[in-house]
Design brief:
This protein is an alpha/beta fold and about 280 residues long. The protein has two domains: about 1-155 and about 185-215, Rossmann fold, CATH 3.40.50.720; about 160-180 and about 215-255 and about 265-275, Alpha-Beta Complex (UDP-galactose 4-epimerase, domain 1). The protein has helices spanning about 1-5, 15-25, 40-50, 65-70, 75-95, 125-140, 160-170, 190-200, 220-230, 265-275, and strands at about 10, 30, 55-60, 95-105, 145-150, 155, 175-180, 180-185, 185, 205-210, 210-215, 215, 235-240, 250-255, 265.
Length: about 280
């Protein structure tokens, strides 16, 4: 444990939702925002990491606009794939461990039972394809990596479904929410804590699925949000066909965690999130 405490951790993308929580659980990490390190610049990546010589690099920077990726595929691939290859190559050269986050969208969502870490990938949209390409770049470049897939992330310091529902519930007496897409809500704080357990515990390298325990639809998630907040608003289930989108989304965004202890249930996580200054 003393050795772990002395290791240098570099956190890339420290100002976002997950990055902010990781900053709390890795308080001594060197925190790099885009202003300090542009990971799409290969020369800058190698120069900065060579100077810092970290033992562990945690990358949270990503293109996350699922809708936008359909029309900005090049931008999504630059940040989610090409830039990740630069980080992986630099980490390999320096002997650093790379922690990189990915998504449930690498799967097509046709399996109602969900997907294990070794499940067959088949993304339906440009965002998912860009994230899967990033995974592939890590895996082909190095061996000492943790690829952590997660889903339906919510937390402070960023736009998320919980806050969107709360805003709508305050403005309307009734809101419609789709009831035919299923997944695992994940509290950014819990994900950060579990990430630290993996890193500090020197768990086996490879791919991990980390979400809060339990599965629900977007409708069930929204109904629980409104109930816990005590807002006088009726949440009505509807079909995704009522909200046409240019993006194909997986019906079952269920990540099965077969490698770590279960994280707290999403309802418990939601209660804790709503109690933090809300």
């Amino acid at each position: 444990m003393e050795k772990i405490k002395k290791e240098k951790v570099v956190l890339i993308g420290s100002s976002g939702m997950l990055g902010s929580e990781l900053s709390k659980v890795f308080p001594r990490a060197v925190k790099l925002t885009h202003d300090l390190l542009d990971i799409t610049n290969r020369e800058m990546v190698f120069s900065e990491l060579s100077e810092l010589r970290p033992s562990i690099v945690i990358n949270v920077a990503a293109y996350t606009d699922v809708e936008g990726a359909e029309t900005e595929a090049d931008a999504a691939n630059l940040l989610n794939s090409t830039a990740v290859s630069y980080l992986a190559e630099a980490c390999k050269q320096l002997g650093s461990v790379l922690v990189h986050y990915s998504t449930d969208y690498v799967f097509d969502g046709t399996k109602s039972t969900g997907y294990g870490e070794d499940g067959e990938t088949c993304p339906l949209n440009e965002y998912g394809r860009s994230k899967l390409a990033g995974e592939a770049n890590v895996r082909k470049s190095m061996d000492d990596y943790y690829i952590i897939r997660t889903s339906w992330l919510f937390g402070c310091h960023g736009k998320n479904f919980v806050d969107t529902i709360l805003k709508l519930a305050d403005e309307k007496s009734e809101i419609n929410v789709v009831n035919d897409q299923f997944g695992c809500p994940t509290y950014a704080y819990d994900l950060a804590v579990m990430t630290k357990r993996i890193v500090d515990g020197r768990c086996s390298f490879g791919i991990y699925h980390l979400t809060n325990d339990g599965v629900c639809s977007w409708f069930e998630f929204a109904r629980e949000i409104v109930f816990l907040r005590g807002v006088d608003c009726c949440v009505v289930p509807c079909s995704s066909d009522e909200y046409p989108s240019q993006v194909r989304r997986p019906k079952y965004s269920i990540l099965n965690n077969n490698r770590m202890d279960k994280m707290p249930h999403w309802k418990d996580a939601l209660k804790r999130y709503l109690s933090v200054g809300r």
